[in-house]
Amino acid sequence: MNLNPRIGSQCMKTISQAIARRKENEKQERRERILSAAKSVFLKKGYLGATMRDIALQAELSPGLIYHYFDNKDHVYGQICEEAFHILLSILRKTESAGKPPLMKMELIARAYLRFYLEYPEYFEIISFKELGFKQVGLRGEIVERLNRLSLEAINLLHEIVVEGIADQSLVPQRDTWATTLSLWAAIEGIIFIHKRGYMEMFGLDIRQQLEHQISILLDGIRR
Amino acid sequence: MNLNPRIGSQCMKTISQAIARRKENEKQERRERILSAAKSVFLKKGYLGATMRDIALQAELSPGLIYHYFDNKDHVYGQICEEAFHILLSILRKTESAGKPPLMKMELIARAYLRFYLEYPEYFEIISFKELGFKQVGLRGEIVERLNRLSLEAINLLHEIVVEGIADQSLVPQRDTWATTLSLWAAIEGIIFIHKRGYMEMFGLDIRQQLEHQISILLDGIRR
DNA sequence: TTGACATATTAAACATTGTTTAATAATTGA
DNA sequence: TCAATTATTAAACAATGTTTAATATGTCAA
């Protein structure tokens, strides 16, 4: 028996806190479980192919429960998409290009982007659907803000190199560093999308060689 | 009364033919009516936003009837998409570049593509959804074959210029003319997609200037 | 003219979506 | 033990693409 009520109440208080903590953990675990199921389903079937019932089945719980933890399908998708961006960013940052000249850094960034496309095609699909298909689907609100920020973060890695290259005069001075950055990014991304559409297979071209070709065109120009 | 049965039967025959012809016309008109409605709906709402009931309402007939004239939604969409490609192709061909040097022709093609994007944004959306979003949606069969052929036809306009440029030595000889073609096409298309995603607005860049920048990078290189 | 037959057309049904709701089960704190 | 909050579910809902079964329409032969 608690002779001292202060101690008793204090004990109860800490227990309550511990329980609250445990419940918070369990809640988080449910969330994770749903996200894990969602990831496998989205990666396998894509945004449109994946259904909430698929995810619920994979997570072994009812579809309705997902809405207890997430606002809607886009919200869940947004989380997976965010994860995809983190993988992309980690690969782009892993280029280990410190100290190398800016032109070399650019090549490394381009190759790293290609590596992401080749090694994580499902994640690439997730991202490119967000980037290109969403005027039609309608991801809204702060989710898309966060994803846009991550997307920009990737491009910014290239921008920093452009700035550096202009500073050390290995690049011609540009009117606008962002204009050059977007040009390069567009050309790299473009060549990957071309591959995704099957045109390289059509002409027996290798994507890696094609990227090197693209890099050399960008860096050296095509005019004799 | 027909005293001569040969004439009578012949007359009936031609009437039957005329009726058959009229019915064929009416059938074609129904088809056109549906396509016209579909076009306005698809252009306004995009592939995913458009519903068969929307189209039926616009055409003032029942949704089921559409399936009497078309296999399914994708089939209808394919027709609109084909129209979009024809517009693109006509614009690309209208460049009036006969006699100009290949490098100039390339610039004109690039600008023409941009013009299509700026003047027919809804058609551009239709095409780019076909090009990029369809692993998830699943357009199948000969429709996609026909669309791919049209898409390739567009790229081939650039390829012919590349071949010509190498022949007259205004371009460095390339291992593969298609490799160069795809590089250029990717860079041009890429810069437009970058704009579509809103990055140029973000940095106060103008799409036309950006395309010129892209062209100059491609043609002159960025290295000092 | 009538009736059979093919075609055009529709309304309704169907299966599958994302999402909501209302009810139930579980857990906690008093 | 009980009230209340929370977690969970089954069922319902509205909207989709598509199918079906029925109906209207028009054609042709007898």
Question: Notable features of this structure?
Answer:
homodimer, 224 residues, mainly alpha, Arc Repressor Mutant, subunit A, Tetracycline Repressor, domain 2, elongated, disordered N terminus, DNA-binding
Could you please describe the fold and organization of this structure?
Chain A is mainly alpha-helical and 224 residues long. Chain A has two domains: 1-70, Homeodomain-like (Arc Repressor Mutant, subunit A), CATH 1.10.10.60; 72-224, Orthogonal Bundle (Tetracycline Repressor, domain 2), CATH 1.10.357.10. Helix content of chain A is 80%, strand content 0%. Chain A is built from eleven helices and no strands. Chain A has helices at residues 5-49, 52-59, 63-69, 73-93, 102-119, 121-132, 134-137, 142-167, 177-196, 199-202, 207-220. In chain A, helix 5 packs across helix 6 (121-132). Chain A is elongated and about 65 Å long. At the A-B interface, helix 1, helix 6, helix 7, helix 9 and helix 10 of A face helix 1, helix 6, helix 7, helix 9 and helix 10 of B. Chain A binds a DNA duplex (30 and 30 nucleotides) through helix 1 and helix 3.
